[in-house]
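Q&A FORM
Asked by: J.P.
Topic: structure of Reticulon-like protein

PROVIDED:
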Amino acid sequence: MAEESEHKPSAVESMMDKISEKIHAHDSSSDSDSDHEKPASPSSVKAKIYRLFGREKPVHQVFGGGKPADVFLWRNKKISATVLGVATAIWVLFELIEYHLLTLVCHISILSLALMFLWSNAHTFIHKTPPRIPEVHLPEDPFLQVAASLTFEVNQALKLLRNIASGRDLKKFLGVIAAFWVLSIVGSWCNFLTLFYITFVLLHTVPVLYEKYEDKVDPFAEKAMVEFKKQYAVFDEKVLSKIPRGPLKAKKF
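REPLIED BY: S.T.
REPLY: Here is the structure written out as tokens.
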């Protein structure tokens, strides 16, 4: 009888151990199911957010990620303010005061040469060392790089205009015609210097404001893009689709 009484508690304990193991296994399986049912992380949701012009990179990398991007996005406020101030001074000098470039260059040259000449001859009377005029030598590499970049961009623009003029893409054709038409209207309002200055100021203000408020601008831009696509689809169905097109030439490989 004593042996039977000793075996009974051990059997009960083994049954309790099995029940507890089943409970723990059920909890772990429910935890794993809940992990699978968790919503996507904020980073994955953020990656699906619409960005203006379909960009996938930050604004700083869109501008090249170098010193020009730092200037446009005001990473160094002193340098950006200095560049914008110099551009404003040049615009005021040539546009408002109506100073001419050749006249300005000649006056600066006259003033600089006169000061250096007088200082070089007067140092013996005022007992000071003569001025040390540095030798100015412009390196060729930066100018060659700029020329190569401009040549590449011009060739790309000419290639794009040639493809548009071939009649293969009506949408791009209408977009370029509209852009040239807007530029012609803006050009009738102001001269090239003012247009260049306005563009320069916009490059120093719009990107930094967009980078600061992009989470508010992008949803609005998405709605505007959806509405534009709807209107373009209606215009394409009623007008563009009825325009006869010539046969496309086969590409030569």
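FOLLOW-UP: The mean pLDDT is 77.
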